[in-house]
Specification:
single chain, four-stranded antiparallel beta sheet, 4 strands, about 10% strand, disordered C terminus
């Protein structure tokens, strides 16, 4: 709609007329177009007010801005109607009154032109407000919807939880079937290890990565030495398992300089 208001603004600003019938012929289509744009703006406001956009943060300001476009468009129409009213018409006087001569007609036109031009300037101003309002409205709605989409994506990401590597996903799957954290004496030093009921090998580094993300937890009420501490998969971990196993990344081969290949057993 902004382009329509801008086009009408240009036509009103650049209008050339002679007071009387010529002015009415030039102003009438402009007034009708302003009224059409007012009706269109009102339809758009109603549609916006009845849409789900009203649930979006910032939508109230957009509705108020659209209402101001309706108002300014209507005022532009009123200004053009005032031009029609201020226009000096050439109809005959009542019986008994002398007909206007050229001098009287010239004076009437001279008095009417400043009033008509003033109303035309006011219409140009109101149409400019309409065009600017439409531009700001389109930008505001786009920003509101983009922000809402980003918020929705952020919430979805939080709900989905962290992305797992294939190794972490396999470890979490194994631990979901049962597992323990225990201390294993090695050369006199205690080494923390993980065991699973199905025998899947889970490194302590992988376990700690899962625990750091809140996907697993262990029972600290029992001893690491005597039987170990039972590992449980958290609700967030269950959500991670509900998603497909992530695909393994293809190894990227780094270009290196040429290598000298020596046949087995050969000597130099």
């Amino acid at each position: 709609m902004a382009s329509d208001f801008e086009a009408l603004k240009a036509r009103v600003r650049d209008i050339s007329y002679t007071p009387g019938t010529d002015a009415l012929r030039h102003v009438s289509p402009l007034l009708l177009q302003a009224q059409d744009l007012t009706a269109t703006a009102l339809v758009r406001l109603t549609a916006l007010d009845n849409s789900t956009y009203t649930n979006t943060a910032g939508s109230r300001a957009s509705l108020e801005l659209m209402a101001s476009v309706v108002s300014s468009s209507s005022l532009a129409g009123t200004d053009l109607a005032q031009v029609v009213l201020a226009n000096p018409y050439e109809g005959a006087q009542f019986a008994g009154y002398p007909a206007d001569d050229e001098a009287v007609r010239t004076v009437r036109h001279a008095e009417a032109i400043p009033q008509m031009n003033s109303h035309l300037d006011d219409a140009v101003h109101q149409l400019g407000l309409c065009a600017s309002g439409c531009h700001y409205l389109a930008h505001g709605i786009t920003e509101d919807l983009t922000a809402a989409q980003e918020d929705k994506a952020a919430v979805a990401q939080q709900t989905a939880g962290p992305t797992l590597t294939p190794t972490q996903h396999d470890a979490l799957t194994a631990l979901n079937g049962g597992g323990y954290l225990y201390e294993s004496p090695t050369r006199g030093l205690g080494v923390t290890r993980v065991t699973t009921n199905d025998g899947t090998r889970v490194s302590i580094a992988t376990y700690r990565a899962l625990a750091k993300r809140g996907l697993v937890t262990h029972d600290t009420s029992t001893s690491l030495w005597a039987g170990g501490q039972k590992i449980s998969v958290t609700e967030q971990g269950q959500q991670a398992l509900a998603r497909p196993r992530p695909a393994a990344r293809l190894a990227t081969q780094v270009a290196a300089g040429p290598k000298t290949v020596v046949a087995q057993g050969a000597r130099r």
